[in-house]
């Protein structure tokens, strides 16, 4: 689960096939199909893009659910953005920083 700068909540379905979007007061807004087969973590960047990782790749979605990018991140199990908008990933056995401000 992750919250964007507007306070909207995004959550992955139990089966990992859908990403649901909820308003700031918890009302369902929309649902999108997502590509990862086993979601490990998700984070939202300052531009509102949604980053979802499985154990080998990070997928980048626009807030409307469109997949716009993906890149390899082997054994990635946690992701977060720092104050500079850089993506920090926890991978076995490293912490890796990505500049994703494109």
Write the layout of secondary structure elements.
Elements (H helix, E strand, L loop, with lengths): L1 E2 L5 E4 L5 E5 L5 E6 L7 E4 L5 E4 L3 E5 L5 E6 L3 E6 L5 E5 L2 E5 L4
Antiparallel strand pairs: 1-2, 2-3, 3-4, 5-6, 6-7, 7-8, 9-10, 10-11
Structure description:
- The two termini are 23 Å apart.
- The protein is built from no helices and eleven strands.
- The protein has strands at residues 2-3, 9-12, 18-22, 28-33, 41-44, 50-53, 57-61, 67-72, 76-81, 87-91, 94-98.
- Strand 10 (87-91) and strand 11 (94-98) form a beta hairpin.
- With 102 residues, the chain is an all-beta fold.
- It has a single domain, classed as TolB, C-terminal domain (Neuraminidase, 6 Propeller), CATH 2.120.10.30.
- It has a four-stranded antiparallel sheet with strand order 1-2-3-4, with no helix packed on it. A four-stranded antiparallel sheet has the order 5-6-7-8, with no helix packed on it. Strands 9-10-11 form a three-stranded antiparallel sheet, with no helix packed on it.
- Average pLDDT, rounded to a whole number, is 93
Order of strands in the sheet with the most strands? 1-2-3-4
Order of helical and strand elements: EEEEEEEEEEE
CATH class: Mainly Beta
Class from secondary-structure proportions? mainly beta
CATH topology type: Neuraminidase
The fourth-level CATH homologous superfamily is TolB, C-terminal domain
CATH architecture: 6 Propeller
Which residues form runs of ≥5 with pLDDT under 50? none
